[in-house]
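Figure 2 data, in text form.
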Amino acid sequence: MEAQDTRNIGDYGMIGEVEESEAREIINWSKKFLKAAEKYLSQAF
């Protein structure tokens, strides 16, 4: 949810700006999430 909110701020800029450090944190979290999903799916199927 937080990443989606940040994306909306970045895309539409209605509330403010997204700090670079915040964007990097979300990117890192996303990479970890994708690795976990890939691992799960490779084991599940």
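Caption note: Residues 20-44 form the longest helix (25 residues).
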